[in-house]
C-alpha cells in the first residue's frame, strides 16, 4: 500500500514543479507546447522502444486480456455515443474523450504499481501492449484525419499509424521483444537517456497547463467531465471485475491484477495527444486530474477487497 501512495506522490510532486516554475515566471504557456511536442515526437518513442522490448509478449495471450479489452471498449463506446448525441463533438474530440474514459496510465504508474503492489511488473503487460499496439495507433489515425478534415479510409486507419513516431517506437520494441535482440550499448544508452525525458516532460507540461491554462473545467460542460471521470473510475473497474470473475472464472491474484490495472487513472499522454492535435485538451487535463486523485483510494479499496 505504501508503494501505491509513493507512486502517486511522485507524480503529483513533478506536476507541482511544473506548476511552480510556471507560477514563478520561469516558463510561459509556450513551454508546455514545447515539452509536449518533445515528449510526443522524441522522448515517448524512445521510452516505448525500451519498455516494450522488456515486456514478455506471451503475457498478452491470457484470459485477463479479454477482460481488459471489454473493460476498455464499454466505457469508450459509452462516451462516444453520449458525446455525439449530447454535445455534438467532432471525431477528434470524441477520440480524446473516449481515451480519457478508458486509456489507463499503464506505463509510468502501472509498471511500478504492478511491481510493488502485485509483485510482478509483467502483469501490466497485457494492458500496456493492448494500448500501445491497438488503441493508440487507431486513435492517432483518426486524430490525424480529423486535423486534415477528411474521413479516414480503411487503408488509412491501417497504414497511417505506422508513420506515427509512437507506433514506430512500439513496433521496434515489439520486434526486440519477440526476437530477443538487444540494441548495442552505443545505441541503447542514448535511447534510454532520451526515453527518460518522456514521463517528467509530460508531467511538467501538465503542471504548466494547470497553472497557466484555462481554469479547472474551462469551457468543458461539468456533465462531460463527470462522464469521462465516472466511466474511468467506476465503470471500467466494474466491467473488468465482472468479465474477469463471472465470465472468465478468474480469481485470486489474476483477478486482482486485472481489476487493479483497470483502476489506474487516465494516462498523462492523453493530454499530450490532445495538445498535439488541439482537440479537447482541457477535458483530457481535468479528467487526468480527477482520476489520478480518485485512483489512490480506489486502488487501495480494490487491494483490500480482492487482495
UniProtKB/TrEMBL annotation:
It is a multi-pass membrane protein. Keywords: Cell membrane, Membrane, Transmembrane, Transmembrane helix, Transport. Its main location: membrane. The keyword Transmembrane helix applies. It is found in: Cell membrane. The chain crosses the membrane at residues 6-27, 34-53, 65-83, 95-117, 123-145, 157-181, 193-213, 250-271, 283-306. InterPro entries: Mem_transp_PIN-like, Na+/solute_symporter_sf. The keyword Transmembrane applies. Coiled coil: none annotated. Belongs to the auxin efflux carrier (TC 2.A.69) family. This is AEC family transporter. It comes from Ornithinibacter aureus. The lineage of its organism: Bacteria, Bacillati, Actinomycetota, Actinomycetes, Micrococcales.
Amino acid at each position: 500500500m505504501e508503494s501505491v501512495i509513493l507512486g502517486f506522490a511522485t507524480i503529483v510532486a513533478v506536476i507541482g514543479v511544473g506548476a511552480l516554475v510556471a507560477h514563478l515566471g520561469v516558463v510561459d504557456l509556450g513551454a508546455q507546447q514545447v515539452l509536449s511536442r518533445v515528449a510526443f515526437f522524441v522522448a515517448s518513442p524512445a521510452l516505448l522502444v525500451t519498455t516494450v522490448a522488456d515486456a514478455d509478449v506471451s503475457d498478452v495471450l491470457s484470459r485477463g486480456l479479454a477482460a481488459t479489452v471489454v473493460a476498455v471498449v464499454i466505457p469508450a463506446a459509452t462516451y462516444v455515443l453520449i458525446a455525439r448525441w449530447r454535445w455534438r463533438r467532432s471525431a477528434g474530440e470524441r477520440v480524446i474523450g473516449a481515451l480519457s474514459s478508458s486509456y489507463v496510465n499503464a506505463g509510468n504508474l502501472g509498471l511500478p504499481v504492478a511491481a510493488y503492489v502485485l509483485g510482478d511488473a509483467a502483469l501490466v503487460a497485457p494492458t500496456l501492449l493492448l494500448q500501445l499496439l491497438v488503441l493508440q495507433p487507431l486513435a492517432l489515425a483518426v486524430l490525424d484525419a480529423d486535423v486534415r478534415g477528411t474521413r479516414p479510409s480503411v487503408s488509412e486507419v491501417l497504414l497511417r499509424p505506422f508513420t506515427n513516431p509512437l507506433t514506430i517506437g512500439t513496433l521496434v520494441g515489439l520486434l526486440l521483444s519477440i526476437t530477443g535482440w538487444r540494441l548495442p550499448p552505443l545505441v541503447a544508452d542514448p535511447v534510454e537517456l532520451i526515453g527518460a525525458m518522456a514521463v517528467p516532460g509530460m508531467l511538467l507540461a501538465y503542471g504548466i497547463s494547470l497553472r497557466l491554462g484555462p481554469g479547472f473545467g474551462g469551457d468543458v460542460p461539468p456533465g462531460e467531465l463527470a462522464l469521462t471521470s465516472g466511466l474511468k473510475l467506476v465503470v471500467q473497474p466494474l466491467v473488468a471485475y465482472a468479465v474477469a470473475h463471472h465470465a472468465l472464472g478468474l480469481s485470486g491474484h489474476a483477478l486482482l491484477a486485472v481489476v487493479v490495472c483497470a483502476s489506474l487513472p487516465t494516462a498523462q499522454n492523453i493530454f499530450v495527444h490532445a495538445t498535439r492535435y488541439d482537440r479537447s485538451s482541457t477535458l483530457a487535463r481535468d479528467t487526468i486530474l480527477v482520476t489520478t486523485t480518485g485512483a489512490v483510494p480506489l486502488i487501495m479499496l480494490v487491494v483490500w477487497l480482492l487482495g
